[in-house]
Amino acid sequence: MINMSHVGLRYDGGPEVLTDISLSLKEGSFHYLMGQSGSGKTSLMRLLHIGKLPSRGDIHFFNKDVSKLSRSKRALIRQKIGVIFQDFRLIPELSVFDNIALPLRLSGESDKAIKTDVNAMAEWMGLKDHLKMKPVFLSGGQQQRAAIARAVIAKPQILLADEPTGSLDDEMGLKIMGLFEELNKKGTAIVVATHNKNLVKAFPHPLLTLKSGELIP
C-alpha cells in the first residue's frame, strides 16, 4: 500500500528531519511508531498521509509515485486514508454529526446511509447525545472520540493514528484499540504513533522506531 525508498525530508531548506527512510506497509499490516520527542514521528506521519512530499527519495501509494501526481489525484488517494491527529483537527463550524459524516459524504454515500452509519458509530463512541453540538463544546476526550469516529467510519484502507488514546480513560482506550484490531483483521493497514508502552504490550505488533530522524532496527 505504501512504499518508501531512501526518503529524506527537510523544511524550508533547513537540515533533514528525516534521513534515508525506507519502509513498506502492506495490506493488513499493523505497526507502532515510537521515538522520543523530536525524533521525527510527526514528520513521518505527514509523509504517510501525503500532508508533505519528500525532499528526496520516492514514495509510492498503491503503486503510484505521489510526487508525480496532480493535487487532485493526491486528494483521491487521501480518501483511502483515515487520519487521527493528535490535535484532533475537527472542523469547528460543523456539528459533531457533520464532522463524523465528512468521509462518507466525500465518498458519495446516500444521506440515509450516512445517518444510519453516523448514529451507530456515535452510539458506540458514547457521543449519541452530542451529535448536534459544535466541537468547542466537547471535552478533550469527547473530541478525540469524534476524531477517531471520523477517521474510521468509512473503513479506510490505511489508518494513521497519532497518540489516539492520549485523552481517553483506560476503558475507552482499550475499546478503541479493539476497534483498530477489527479493522486490521479486515485488511486495513494501521500505524499508531504512541509513547504508551503498556498499549504496545497489551496489543503486540511490530515497532517502527525513530531516532534523530532515522529508522533504527
How much β-strand is present in the residues? 15-25%
Total strands: 10
Alpha-beta content class: alpha/beta
Alpha plus pi helix count = 7
- Report the span from N to C terminus: 22 Å
Largest sheet: 6 strands, mixed
Order of helices and strands: EEEHEEHEHHHEHEHEE
Any idea what the shape is? Answer: globular
Q: Residue share in helices?
A: 25-40%
Identify the strand order in the major beta sheet.
6-7-8-3-9-10
> How big is the Rg?
17 Å
- Average pLDDT number: 94
Uncertain segments of ≥5 residues (pLDDT<50)?
Answer: none
Question: Could you give a short description of this structure?
Answer:
The protein is α/β, with parallel strands linked by helices and 217 residues long. It has helices spanning 41-48, 71-78, 96-106, 111-125, 140-152, 170-185, 197-202; strands spanning 2-10, 16-25, 30-34, 56-61, 64-65, 81-84, 158-162, 189-193, 207-211, 214-216. Helix 3 (96-106) runs parallel beside helix 5.
